[in-house]
Amino acid sequence: MNRGQDAGETLVELLITVAVLGIAVTAIVGGLMVAVDASSLHRNQAQAQHLLRDWAETVSGVGDTGGYAYAACPAAPAAPAAPALPAGFGAAVSRVENWSGTGWVTSCPSPDLGVRRLTLTITAPTGAYPGFSQSLAVVVRRPCAGSASC
Asked: Given phi > 0 = left and psi -120 to 50 = alpha, else beta, which region is 78?
């Protein structure tokens, strides 16, 4: 029998080929998963920023007569309603400050100068990456109608 004409592969060659292909496929799938996770993170960041700006425009009353209902001191300021949020997102007014004439204070100045700064915060859901939050400060004024000092 002439063994020189055998054209078959040995078992060792086949095992090495399967191992190399398995490592290559694992690396490609791992890279794809990282790309999908990063894309999801960027989408959540963009969505949180859009929701935050939309909420800030609503609070400041841009484009409509609604907006934040300014309550004069010493009444507790009403928290502006948060926008409708997708699943996993959260919204909160993280800080309320009043203008005292010399700086921003968390207490109620006397007299109330009619200027308030609200810090709005949107929190994104956690996933493959840790969750995050974005904040935006919005300055609102007391409406001039019926007020002696504008």
From this structure: beta
pTM score, two decimals? 0.69
Handedness of CA 98, 103, 109, 110 (dihedral sign): negative
CA distances from 88 to 44, 91, 98, 127, 144 (A): 10, 10, 31, 10, 39
- The domains of the chain are located at 9-141
Q: Which of 69, 51, 56, 23 is nearest to 125 (CA)?
A: 51
Q: How far is the C-alpha of 78 from the C-alpha of 84, rounded, in Å?
A: 18
Q: Mean pLDDT across the chain, nearest whole number? A: 83
